[in-house]
Amino acid sequence: MQRGETLPVALAAEDGSAMSEGEFRLLYEATARPILAYLTGVTGRRDVAEDLLQETYCRFLARGRRSLEGEEARRYLFRIAGNLLRDRWRRGEDSRWVELVDVGASADAGLGIDVQRAMGALKPRERELLWLAYVEGMSHAEIAEATGLAAMSVRLLLFRARRRAAGLLRPGEELG
Question: Mind listing the UniProt keywords for this protein, alphabetically (predicted)?
Answer without folding.
Answer: DNA-binding, Sigma factor, Transcription, Transcription regulation
